[in-house]
Design brief:
Helix content: 10-25%
Strand content: 25-35%
Number of strands: 34
CATH superfamily of the largest domain: Spore Coat Polysaccharide Biosynthesis Protein SpsA, Chain A
CATH topology of the largest domain: Spore Coat Polysaccharide Biosynthesis Protein SpsA, Chain A
Radius of gyration: 30 Å
Number of domains: 2
Bound molecules: uridine-diphosphate-N-acetylglucosamine, magnesium ion
CATH class of the largest domain: Alpha Beta
Shape: elongated
Largest sheet: 19 strands, parallel
Number of helices: 10
Distance between the termini: 86 Å
């Protein structure tokens, strides 16, 4: 699946007003990845000669994310047609007939569910029988605000009518434009430069090039694609609907790769979540970006995991939190109400109850008792805790970093460890217990007299 004679222009400059957000619309994440990154990942395997992303002013975050794609700034945003004009300008002399680019693929940055195979179908169709404009088409359950395709009896597309400009008869058309098309490069600039703003929104509509092409006797055709892949995201409700679709896709993929999801609809995955075989995920688990899970691991209910690596046969949760930089080697157990951040736990290590292990390394076979806390932050700097292999940290211990506990060492329960513990030592860092005979009864009697 590779052709290099097409360029991609991705439109992402719109302010996304309907999202009511400070974040550019295309930066809103789906399954842990910004929408625009989904679009780029979809087209990457098709190897476009160049990808141009049209962004708005103050969208530096988008420009950085899409590198090495070229970005051009559209300011002010005068519509999708104006955005494509600016994108084409960036391709300059590379367009046919003078340059090597035969076709321009236009995609919308707010259409993140598109699959590579589906985009490839559009390119293949164009290869078979080139049309001056080849449109993607879909039949959504609710055509709502989508542009409607108006076709002639012989299947040629005569124009696209925006919902805002459509007559009741046109609104009744069920076949819509999802925001993806191919234009033959040699006609692209001429058609785009002929656009005007005579429409309900006083914008340069990209959709109007279809009517312009038809009027010039150029062929416009459409191929229908599955609606669930090409739905656009314009509102938070549509973002949630798209999230539901992509989650469903990711869960099915995980299960078909040999993962047991006990209640799939309650498990949230990221596009890059990687599972080994025979992983079992109990209900209500959240996987943020950057998680890899080894073979046979068990992730119990209500765990929250992001940017973490779980080794084979690891057991995590219920109610565990693995934050960025958590690395659990094989057979590690992390239990309820344990938080791990930027810490590596060696093979077979256990931290089963109520702990915070941050900026640490814990050797193989070490047991971290209930309620152990690594004090990694002094209010200004972060410091590391190093615990050796086969060590035993007694319950409710506090390890004040920077500090090292040697291999095979014991730390007594309730200790506050502020200096290094040598290998195989037993460290007790708490006040000695004092038992005062009979004083409990005396105290009770005194308190009762006062009451
Ligand atoms: C657009 C189409 C509509 C189609 C729908 C599919 C037009 C005029 N309408 O409507 O026919 O059914 O998409 O989802 O094209 N953008 C810019 N610069 C601009 C305006 C928009 O880059 O000046 C970008 C946006 O960031 C967005 C994309 O273009 O990624 C589409 O814009 P949007 O405002 O969402 O168009 P729709 O109203 O959804
Ligand atoms: Mg849109």
């Amino acid at each position: 699946m590779s052709r290099s004679d097409f360029a991609a222009i991705i439109l992402a400059a719109g302010s996304g007003t309907r999202m009511k957000s400070a974040l550019p619309k295309v930066m809103h994440p789906l399954a842990g990845r910004p929408m625009i990154a989904h679009v780029l990942a979809t087209i990457a395997p098709l190897k476009p000669a160049t990808t141009v992303v049209v962004i708005g002013p103050r969208m530096d975050s988008v420009a950085k994310l899409v590198e090495p794609a070229i970005t051009v700034v559209q300011d002010p945003p005068l519509g999708t047609g104006d955005a494509v004009r600016i994108g084409l300008a960036a391709l300059g002399g590379r367009l046919a007939p003078d340059g090597e680019i035969e076709n321009v693929l236009v995609l919308y940055g707010d259409t993140p569910l598109l699959r590579t195979e589906t985009t490839a179908r559009l390119l293949e169709e164009q290869e078979k029988a080139s049309a001056s404009v080849l449109l993607a088409a879909m039949r959504p359950a609710d055509p709502g605000p989508y542009g409607r395709l108006v076709a002639s009896g012989d299947g040629r597309i005569l124009r696209i009518v925006e919902a805002a400009d459509a007559s009741p008869e046109e609104l009744a058309v069920g076949i819509c434009w999802p925001g993806m098309l191919l234009i033959e490069a040699r006609h692209a600039s001429e058609l785009i430069n002929a656009l005007d703003r005579n429409n309900a929104q006083h914008e340069f509509y990209l959709t109007a090039i279809v009517g312009l092409a038809a009027a010039r006797g150029l062929e416009c055709r459409a191929i229908e694609l599955p609606a669930e892949e090409v739905v656009g995201v314009n509102t938070r409700a549509e973002l949630a609907a798209a999230e539901a679709l992509i989650q469903d896709r990711l869960r099915r993929q995980a299960m078909s790769n040999g993962v047991t999801l006990v209640a799939p609809e309650t498990v949230f995955l990221s596009v890059d979540t990687r599972f080994g075989r025979d992983v079992v995920v109990e209900p209500n688990v959240f996987f943020g970006p950057g998680v890899t899970v080894g073979d046979g691991a068990l992730i119990r209910s209500f765990s929250h995991i992001e940017r973490a690596v779980l080794g084979a046969q690891a057991v995590v949760g219920p109610f565990a939190r693995l934050r960025p930089g958590a690395v659990l080697e094989d057979n590690v157990h992390v239990g309820n109400f344990v938080e791990i951040k930027e810490a590596r736990l060696g093979a077979g290590a256990k931290a089963n109850h109520l702990s915070y292990i941050g900026d640490s390394s814990v050797g193989a076979g070490t047991n971290i008792g209930a309620g152990t806390i690594t004090c990694n932050y002094d209010g200004i700097n972060k410091w590391r805790t190093t615990i050796g292999e086969r060590a035993f940290i007694g319950s409710d211990s506090v390890l004040v970093a920077p500090v090292t506990v040697g291999d095979g060492a014991y730390v007594a329960a309730g200790s506050v460890i502020t200096s290094d513990v040598p290998a195989d030592a037993l460290s007790i860092a708490r006040s000695r217990q004092v038992d005062k005979a009979g004083r409990g009864a005396e105290l009770r009697a005194r308190l009762q007299r006062k009451g």
